[in-house]
Structures are given as structure tokens and as C-alpha cells.
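Forwarding these from the shared drive since the link keeps breaking.
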Amino acid sequence: MWKQQRDIEFEAFYRMHRDRLWRLALLLTSDTDRADDLAQEALLRAYQAWHRIRQEEPLPYVHKILVNLVRKDWRRRALELLPKGRTETFSADSADRIADALSLAEMLSTLSTVRRATLLLRFYEDLSAEEVSRVLERPLGTVKSDTRRALEQIRPLLQIEEEAR
């Protein structure tokens, strides 16, 4: 009975958050295949821990898993970016949005993994600085400093992109 209830609860969570987690993984990695793998791995680990995390808000836990998986993946790959993923499987309408996302991901790839995660969790996932601090296990002041410095670093790239349009 418990396993069936757990599966129903997790399935609802999965359906609600899988696409958003994949997009976050894509922005963190700039690679659709790695995003697929890492988002799936994060959700699998969440499922395995569902009995512990279901009573609390599980999404921050899954964010933390995903960020840690990306960090581990970057360390293992010595911070090398792989060629961009496949956009030919998407419709023409979504191709522009994907191109924009990949362009943003390329800009974000100039940041360290921690600063990239800080910006994405803070602005893309709309977490407060305190929540980002908990997810990344970093002091609040460091999160605020990382946010400011990351924005300073990508602001010129955003301006160049805007001028190119």
C-alpha cells in the first residue's frame, strides 16, 4: 500500500517538475544529452529518497541533487564543454526559443559552475538568496557576492548579443 501511494505521489511530482528540471540541467550543462542524463539521475535519486523528502518541499532537494550531479560531471569532464545538442528534433517555433536558451547557456558557460548555478537557481528557478544558500551549501554573503560578480561578468556578453539582434 505504501509503495503504491509513494509511486502516485512521486509520479505527480515528476510530471509537474521534469521539464523544468531538464531545462535547468540544459542551462547548467549546455548539452541536451547531458541534461537528459543528469535530470533523469536527479529524479531517480529523489525517487529513492522520496520516503524522507516527500513531507517537506522536495523541489529544493532535487535542485541540490541536480547541481551536485552537474558539479561532479564537470569535474569528471575537466570542465570541457561538449558540442551543442540536437535542435533538429524540435518545431520551427520552438527552435528560436531553444536557440535563445543555447545562446544563454553559452554565455553562462563562461562562468564557474558555482556562479552559473547561483544565477540559475536565483533567477531561473526564482529562489531567494537564502534558498540558494541552502541548496548550494554556501554562506548567504558568498551567494550574494557570487550573484553580483556573475552578473557583472555576463552583462557585456548580453549587451553584445542584444546589439547583434
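-- next protein --
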Amino acid sequence: MIASGTSHAAITVVNALPLGIGAAVGVAWPARASARLLAPSDRSPGVTVAPRSSSTPVVRCAARAALERWGPVGGGIRLRVRSTIPRAKGLKSSSAVASSVVAAVAGLSGRAPSPLAVGRVAAEAGRRAGVSATGALDDALAGLESGGVVTDNRTDRCLRRFDVDAGLGVVLWIPPGRHPPSPSVQRAFARRRAIARRAVAAALDGGWVEAMRRNSSLVEAVLRYRYDALHRAAAGAGAVASGVTGLGPTFAAIAPLGRLGRVARALPTSVGRRATVRLLRRNTEREDLS
């Protein structure tokens, strides 16, 4: 028996590190997993992962968490994980991979769990693996649903969903370097709770553009990113919102589809790379999950 799962990258509206409340929007950059149930007589019990480079702590924790949630399937499981989402760049690669693995393993038990159920198990896997201080339910759920989400990652509850205009897309500027592990900077973010509260309040009111602006200012101050010129260039080319995604270093600019080319050309070309992606929509959000 073979089952599969798909999730996607996401960009940050509000970082959850200061308050435990985060907001994110999914983008159509997929991570996919397939799970094959081996015969009980197979000599490879447990979970094996291919390619070997994909056998990361978060993948193994996601598989174990899914088995605990939906029950053992008997025999071994062989997982194949495929993702081109850059790691440690702020694009939620760990959440996307974990969610795809959770959905695939659940499918071996004949289950088609809701996006929220998949996201909660993926968030638990992130905590166990030590890749996320909060579990990042906002990131996981955003990669499974269209529109944006606001979640309380302390209680794994979805507080609000909000729409983002279907006529918008995203330009990403992805520079060299990786962000630090979130547990290592959690204390620094906790000292900025007052600023974070204003970003959270805007997101809960549906003001995701304002929330993204406030959040980016906070993240840039804590991690010392110098992105003022990027904001100005993106806005001048037609972006309606921009900011650091996750802990960076990726910079995301959201603009009308017809202006994405102009925005991309306004961002640096001498260092890093640019990518243009669509926002996640209903025709992709439940792929392989229902």
C-alpha cells in the first residue's frame, strides 16, 4: 500500500516567538512525501527514509508522531520525501516537510485528516525535533490551506483565518546564509513583546499588511537585517506589503500579479537569488490529503 501527502512553503505575517501567537500565508512551493507499507515479513521494520539526506530529525519525528496519533500499521514503512524549499531560509521548509510526512503516514491507516489535524501533529514533531521553539502551527497550517491563518502555538488553536486577494503573488529574495535555530533567539524576541502585541492585534483584525510591516521591523531589529532599501525598492515597484519571512534571511514582497516582474527586477541581482511564487489556492491546498 502507498499513501502520499503534500504541503507547501509559507511566508510570515507575524513571528510567534515573542508571544506564542503567529500568522502566516502559504505559497505554492510544494513538499511531497510518499509512504509505502512494507510486508510484515520484510526485514526492515520501523521507518526508513529515502533519499538518505532526507532522513532528518524532523522527518523521523513527524513519522513517529503520526503513528502515535493514528495507530501502528504493522510491518515497516518506507518514506520518500521530495522538497526543493530552501532550508533555514525562513520559508517554513521543516513545517512543509513534516506536514507532508504526517499526511502520508496517516494515509497508510486509511485516514484523511483535516489540515488542522495534520498541522497539529506536524507542530508537535517540530517541537520534538528541536527545530521550532513554538511548534509553528501557523507555518504548518498555512502550508495546507489557502489564505492566511493566525494561530496560538501554545495551545495549538487556530484563532483566525483571513483572505488574501487572489490577484496577488509573491516575490522572494533569498540571500546566502541561514537563520539561527529559533530556540537560540527566543529570549531576545521575548524582550520585544510590546511591539509584537501590536502586530498580533493587526493580524487578528484582518490587517495583515500592517501586521507584516510591524513584524518585519521587529525581526530586522533583533537579527540586525538591513532591509530598509529592499522595502523602498519593493514599494516603488508596486508591492503592497513586504518583510522578512520567518527568521530570514529571505525577504518577501507581495504585489499584484501584473507587477511581480517589476518588483523582482527591483530587488538585488548581485547577491542571492529571486523567485516568484503564487499564493496557495484551493485547487492545491488539499492535494493528496482528501
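Strands lie at 2-14, 21-37, 47-50, 77-83, 148-152, 157-162, 168-174, 241-244, 251-256, 273-278. Confidence is low (pLDDT under 50) at residues 283-290.

- D.
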